[in-house]
Amino acid sequence: MINRGGVILIDEALEVFRKIYDKEGEELVVSKHIPKDGTYILVNIKSGKIIEKLDISYDKKTKKIDGELNQYYSYFRAFDYYSNLVDMNKPMDSKKTIHSNQIYSFFIKKESIRENKLTKSIIEGYKKNLLNPEEKYNSKEGKELYKNIAEKLPKIEKNIVEDIFLWIEDNVNENLLDNDNKKDYLKIFFIEDNLDKSLELFKNEHKRYLIPNIFNSNDYNKRIGETIYGLSNNNMGLNAKKTFLENKTRRISTPYLVDTDEILLQYAFYNYLLPEVKQGNYFIYFLENEIIPRTYKEGCPNGAKYLLNASYSKDVDIKNFNVISKNSSEEISINFKEILHQRKKDTDEIEYGNLNKEKMMNNINKILFYNSLLGNFLLNDGDLDIKDIEVKKLLMKYRNSFYKWFYLNDEAEVKKNIRKIYLDAVMVAIGNGYFFKASQQLDFGFCLEKYFYGKSELMEEIMNVKEVFLNHTLSEEEWEFLNDEEYFFAVGQILAYINYMRNSKAKSLNFIKQLTFVKNIDVLKEKIKKIVISYSHIFETKNKKINRTVSNISLYQPKEIRIDILLAGFTADIIFFKKREEK
Prior knowledge:
The chain is an alpha+beta fold.
């Protein structure tokens, strides 16, 4: 397992990676590697001539790499991968000015050259450590690791090292920068005439550096038989300042030890994840023999067994790991249509008609959560940058349920709470004065409910009571409410009429919002009465439909509160404007 930041990566995911890695080798990881922004230079070791000079940069918006079309780019990428430090706490230059790990490469920040931080003593110290690694690793455990790998590698050719460092001393200066004032890297690679042969040399020197530095700290290493075990560096950062992470009750106090083969696999896996999360693929799915990285905009692929979530700032941050127990081979199809509201021209790119999973996810994000759901699944509650406190509360309350549905194929929580979800969203819309949004949310909620249960009982109830109320208002005879549902629908219609007729540009809906918090039926009826009286001046005195409705509202005594029906009446098209022939 990998434990990073307290989150455990289950061995099964690593096993899926192992299958693919054993088949494809290091090219699986190297081919995904994204070099850091900077100027990359190839120098022929024998002639000292610059073969190629290339500026490489990564565009975060387009996810494209400037320079990748260059004929030498694949070599630059591979040389760079094999020359990188495990982390900045494992340098070959003790002053941390030079950031490469081997004799065939030389990495430095351009500003270090401009600010004269690259001194002769730093270059000499770097050269000394490369020529005499056994002296750099002063602990018994470190020396043992270096000895084990050094025996399997060709000896360092000191004359080649001398030629390389003569070139560095003569050429690495401001002249090489060509008035470049950027704060990115200068990376130089020293190569043979045969680039493939050079690549093998880079790989060997990478191993020479990697093995003694792969563990968190060699102080924690333990030899059992012929195998050395140590603490993963892709772990929780155990060091002298974090001794509280040790397990003091065990004979071996380090939390988790792995052998060299396992930690090299973890290292490759970690480097596989790095470019994926850097490109925004925070959802890494594991199938039987395949890994599918995806963005938050895409749902769970068929056949997925595990989901690893990671994000990227300066490094890979593994957020969580989930087992996917349910496979979804059926395509989602939700028919979204207007039921209570009339579609506007500017619908914020809302999709109508038959929706697949991705379109449905997009609609849920826009209609119910004001574009704040997708992209915010992996943030802690305190890190959510949402100004509207009610929208933020709505998101925090339900985002885990939608995470399970979208990315783990587990729809149980959303299905169970779907009516509560869309009615809560309507309450937020009403509170913010978003009349059209509220009606749109009700319609979309009905469609989601119909998808889960085959029908929406609330929608059918509302459509029935709407028809009854329409027939009553169009009737020339006296009539009265048949039940609580018609009463609350009629109240909603009267409130909608008031809202429509008010002479106000910024129409606050606080006058209806106050009703949604009332729990006592008598108090609610009294509040409704006060609202109607306060706006009585806008009613048409000769309008029989409205007069009869207001009269019946005052006379009828409801038995239970049905705010959901009231909201439906409020957001539906206003029946008082309909004529008999329009029915």
